[in-house]
Amino acid sequence: MKHELYFEHVITIGNLYLEHIFLQFEMEPVFFTCVDEKDNLFICLCSDIRGGQKWIISECSLYTLDRLIAGTMDISSSLCIPEHLVLIARDLQGHEKSCMINTCDVDPLDLPKAGTLLKCDMESAITYFMVKKSNALILNAKYTSPIVNRLLAYSTRLNEMVVHERELAENEKHNVSEHEPHNHHNLDDANTELYLSAA
Q1: HSE on the CB side for 111, CA within 13 Å?
Q2: CB–CB of 55/18 below 8 Å?
Q3: Are 52 and 61 in contact (CB under 8 A)?
Q4: How far is CA 96 from its chain centroid?
Q5: pLDDT of residue 30
Q6: Which of 66, 69, 122, 176 is the most buried (most CB within 10 A)?
Q7: Hey, which residues does 133 pair with through a beta bridge?
Q8: How far is 9 from 90, CA to CA, in rounded Å?
Q9: Please, are residues 34 and 123 in contact by the beta-carbon 8 Å criterion?
Q10: pTM higher than 0.85, yes or no?
Q11: pLDDT tier for residue 136 given thresholds of 50, 70 and 90
């Protein structure tokens, strides 16, 4: 789902790639997500367009993204979860500068009003989130597969041992059942001989 390179050489992050646009104004993304080279997720807010552009960049978890889309967390709160935020400024010539600030130092005027919830194409947003979540599960399974494989191998070996024990028990039972009729046959012969001798 990675699209275009949107920010370059961002402090402590590197390059950021535009991934999903929630809100836009005159074809320009206003509230959107980006990912870095390692697929870490960031939510981005364009806070100013006068004499250039300014953005607030905040690292975001899938849990936060889920709450944001579901409407149980407002935009400002979702941006202010990390201890630090990255601010990016781009002048009219397209030159970018980025810096890091403490989240508590962000200008409240650069943030949406408290309680402002995300209003966007919800179908598109939910689909985007589900794909992100599925990809995360697949990636997690990839990293845990050696453990899973060991557990499966142990389970298979345990099943083989159980089957082997059952086969031994069945063979022993079969041997006993074969021996018992033979004894009964000898006993019948002895009884016959005893009957004939008595006659």
Answers
A1: 22
A2: no
A3: no
A4: 33
A5: 96
A6: 69
A7: none
A8: 13
A9: no
A10: no
A11: confident
Which SS3 state, helix, strand or coil, does residue 42 take?
A: strand
Tell me what the mean pLDDT of segment 126-150 comes to: 76
Instruction: Output 196 or 63, whichever has higher pLDDT.
Output: 63
Parse the chain into domains and list their residue ranges: 5-120, 121-199
Q: Environment class of residue 55 by beta-carbon count within 10 Å: exposed (0-12), middle (13-18) or buried (19+)? A: buried
Residue written as tokens 């990675």?
2
- Give 150-154's long-range contacts (Cβ < 8 A, gap of 24+): none
For residues 183, 188, 190, 195, the Cα torsion angle rounded to the nearest 10 degrees is 170
Q: E strands along the chain, which residues?
A: 5-10, 14-25, 28-35, 41-48, 53-59, 84-90, 96-102
Q: Give the separation between CA 44 and CA 34, rounded to whole angstroms.
A: 7
User: What residue type is 54 in one-letter code?
Assistant: K
Compute the distance between CA of residue 85 and CA of residue 10 in angstroms, rounded to an integer.
12
Question: Which helix (H) or strand (E) element contains residue 129?
Answer: helix 122-198
- Residue 196: the pLDDT is 38
* 191/194 Cα distance (integer angstroms): 5
Count CB atoms within 10 A of the CB of residue 182: 9
User: Rounded distance, CA 31 to CA 45, Å?
Assistant: 5
